[in-house]
Amino acid sequence: MARACGRVSAPRPRATRWCACRCGATCWRRRRRRASDAIGCRRRGRENGQRRIHDMSLIRQIWCLVLGAVLASALGGVAVSAWSLRDLLQTQAQLKNADNASALALALSQQKGDAELMSLLISAQFDAGAYESVRWRDAKGAQVFERHLETPQAPRAPGWFAALLPLDVAPGVAKVSDGWKSIGEVELRGQTGYVHEALWRSTLSTASWLLLVGVLTGVAAAAVLSRVRRPLDTAVQQAEGVSQGRFETVLEPRVPEMRKLTSAMNTMVLRTRQMFEAQAEQLRTLHHQLLCDELTGLSHRRQFVAELSSALERDDGPLRAGLVLLRLKDLQGLNQRLGHGATDQALMAIAQALRVYPEQVRGCLAGRLNGSDFALWLPAPGVVGDTAHALAEALRAGLQNLGPGVGVAMGAVELMRDQPMGAWFAAADAALARAELGEGVVLELREAPPSEEVAQGERAWRALISDALQQQRSRLLEFPLIGRDRQVLHLECPLQLKLNPVGDFEPAARWLPLALRHRLSAEADLQALALALQASQQDHRARCVNVAPASLNDGSFIARARELVQAAPAAVRRLIGLELAEPAAVQHFEALQELGRQLRPLGVQLGLEHAGAGLAQIDRLFQAGLDYVKLDSAVVSGVSADVSRAAFVRSLVVMLRSLALKVYAEGVTDALDAQALWDCELDGITGPWASAQGIKP
Quick one: which of 247, 529, 567, 602 has the fewest CB in 10 Å? Predict the structure, then answer.
């Protein structure tokens, strides 16, 4: 048994923490815990209040300060005005009471001390005036006559107002005499209801005027804050643009403080832009040193083969293309007869004639395969014959100054682009071998067989593609892009069409060149976007679809794409990406910017695919509004066995990371290349190797 407070009771369980005396009081531990909890609650309340204040925007804080100052000024003005007016009216009421009392005493003094007449006069005065009470006392202080209102007049002002500003009006007192003899005094108190009424009306009028002044002040403050906010918002947007890789200068505002901030931001942007341009120039120099032939400046054999392999694997190339091989005959004999200088001039003449085509036509490839062999890739059907003849004429004119005995053999072929690379070089080598039998500049041309497009007619192909798009006989393939941890970052989703209702789905390489020719690429890209949105809404996986650069020429493409994206939930929008080939950043830069301005605020990511050395030629890459860049397989292929190529890839990554862009590699086929790319700090890899990995969504 436990004893406490003089009473005996059974002990309670310890978990209850109640005193054993059952007196209802909590034990000291519980009281201390409650006190500490209360202190903690108050502290957390203060911290939350301070956090809410700190989280408030600057403009909102200024607005609160302005409104608080205006409100405090208005309330203070009303209070001071009401208080001063109350004192004034109270003084006037006191003076009025004194004057009325003096006038009544003078009238009473003329009655010669007749009490009846004096009483009648006081009653008449009380009934005629707005008095609350009138008293007449004799010379000894005894009350002779008194009149007062039973129910004083209620003021029209609110009761709380009368209670807040009470009136203390002293009564008027005057002596009553009969000649030189004092016969008493009279005390008179006027009614004060009208004073509160006048004070209330005046307070309302003052408050109304101050409210009007406050509203005008608020409007003026809003105009001033709007002027202050514009340069502040511009500075914020400029800072956000820098963080997103967009380096834009803005006009300096007139506000001195904001002018200093904007000037500092512009200076930083200009310096960053200069650093990017210097880095791009270094990248161009590195590309020329590592991936190009030292003498001619053309791509060396490994780079040309990688670029040709990438061109053959793309979906957006033509159905047919051309390849021209050139060989300077008897290179060793020319060195002996003409010397190394003249031989180098001959090689430079060939390189100069070839360089014209890649510089003027996007997609053309030119390279030096070995000491005497050169190659030219023409990504267009039906042009290899004319191009080869024009090239032969240019070489005849350029080599004639070197003297006799300088000959060039040329083999030109045109094949379907789905042929393997070995078939291309075999056909061109066969034509080149026949051309070597002649003298001077000799061209051997192999005509391409008629294509299926020519056999069926362009109208028939256009009808097949249009019908497939209208009836939505389409689907998306899925190829993973994985990160370093083997997790899928997004799915690459090329579009396939079923041109024949009873046939199979055709890859984009089969129908996309025709769709580009017949201006149907925008419809195909929009259908791919709609399918990606639908699939991502179902499984919540990130997807990206390809957009042909030619689709940007369609004036309604961007608007229709925005409508499709806006119709999807916000969570689905963030899972979608759009990819354009590298030429889009050069040929359609403004349209690419507009696409980013329309879709990136909705959550859609924008990327550049098949990117390579041409990135260094895009002088406004930092303004393109991109989220990521995919390096072409021609750039990353063989990176594990080529130290110079790895250095070039690492330089590309450094330049793109400085623009806040993620960098991926495409077309990776080898595990050693994948590991070398991870060592180059890439963010993701796609290609046959990535598809073969055991990956997780």
Answer: 567
pLDDT higher than 80, residue 55: no
| 48-150+166-237, CATH topology level | Beta-Lactamase (3.30.450)
Q: What is the DSSP string of 11-32?
A: PPPGGG-B-TT-SSPBPHHHHH
Backbone angles phi and psi of 626, in degrees to 5: -100, 160
Give the model's pLDDT for residue 566: 93
Between CA 403 and CA 406 the distance in angstroms is 7
Domain ranges in the chain with CATH number 3.30.450: 48-150+166-237
**What would you report as the CA-atom Rg of the chain, rounded to the nearest whole angstrom?**
48
* Residue 466 contacts residue 520 (beta carbons within 8 Å): yes
- Return the minimum-mean-pLDDT range out of 205-214, 217-226, 429-438, 656-665: 217-226
Q: Where in the chain is the domain with CATH 3.30.70.270?
A: 307-449
pLDDT in tens, 611-648: 877 776 666 777 777 889 999 888 888 888 888 888 88
Angle, CA 608 vertex, CA 605 and CA 609 arms, to 5°: 120
pLDDT tens readout for residues 281-336:
777 777 777 778 888 888 888 889 888 888 888 777 677 889 999 999 888 888 88
Residue-wise DSSP of 353-401: HHHHHHHHSTT-EEEE-SSSEEEEEE-STT-HHHHHHHHHHHHHHHHGG
Q: What is the pLDDT of residue 512?
A: 83
CATH superfamily name and code, 307-449? Reverse transcriptase/Diguanylate cyclase domain (3.30.70.270)
Nearest to 592 by CA among 600, 604, 584, 601: 584
Whether 503 shows a pLDDT value over 90: the answer reads no
Give the CA distances from residue 427 to residues 65, 132, 363, 525, in Å, rounded to whole numbers and listed in that order. Answer: 82, 127, 21, 35
User: Quick one: 262 exposed, middle or buried, by C-beta within 10 A (0-12, 13-18, 19+)?
Assistant: buried
Q: Delimit the CATH 3.20.20.450 region(s) of the chain.
A: 457-692
Class of domain 457-692: alpha beta
Q: Give how far Cα 284 sits from Cα of 48, 280, 289, 467, Å.
A: 55, 6, 9, 46
Residue 150, H or E segment: none
Structure token digits, residue 551: 């689709």
